[in-house]
Amino acid sequence: MVIKTAEKTLTLMRKGRFFKEYQVEMVAFPPDVRGPFRTEVTGKAAYLEGARIAVTDPGYAEAERRIVLAQSGFYLLPSGVAGQPPAIRPGDPAEEFDKDLLYGVFLRPEDMFEIYSLLTMATEVNVAD
């Protein structure tokens, strides 16, 4: 996977070839993280009404999907998730950011749902400017 923050795109690659591209709605870096960097998928989680649920939960089909990356505090998330920071302008000082918010790449919920089903654990992620 390649995330280009300046272009606001997330591109999935399969065996080194283009597979599919998605528009990113927002990228919000945690206060202590800046791109570019390489990381990988370390977890996949589903949340319903703010609580993490198991795949066996009856509400799983409707649950919000999140993808956890090895880069601490950086996720792939659906837009509109509780805890999403406000739109961040380039050049905002890091100390203005709330450390209790969720940070990462925010995508349309339907795109996030699709990406969640396509990615596997240890998928390489390249976050570029």
How large is the count of helical segments? 1
Uncertain segments are none
CATH class: Mainly Beta
Strand content: 35-45%
Order of helices and strands: EEEEEEEEHE
CATH architecture: Beta Barrel
Order of strands, widest sheet = 1-2-3-8-7-6-4-9
Distance between the termini: 14 Å
Care to count the β-strands? Answer: 9
Relevant CATH superfamily: L,D-transpeptidase catalytic domain-like
In this structure, how is the largest beta sheet organized? 8 strands, mixed, barrel
What structural category arises from helix and sheet content? mainly beta
Radius of gyration: 14 Å
- Indicate the overall shape: globular
For the residues shown, what is the average pLDDT? 88
Description:
The protein has 129 residues and is mainly β. The chain has one domain: L,D-transpeptidase catalytic domain-like. The protein has one helix and nine strands. The protein has one helix at residues 109-118; strands at residues 2-4, 9-14, 17-28, 37-48, 51-53, 64-69, 75-78, 104-107, 124-128. Strands 1-2-3-8-7-6-4-9 form an eight-stranded mixed beta barrel. The model has no long low-confidence stretch (mean pLDDT 88).
Please outline what is shown here.
It is built from one helix and nine strands; from the N terminus they run ββββββββαβ. It has 129 residues and is mainly beta.
Describe how the helices and strands are arranged.
Layout: E1 2-4, E2 9-14, E3 17-28, E4 37-48, E5 51-53, E6 64-69, E7 75-78, E8 104-107, H1 109-118, E9 124-128
Parallel strand pairs: 1-9, 7-8
Antiparallel strand pairs: 1-2, 2-3, 3-8, 4-5, 4-6, 4-9, 6-7
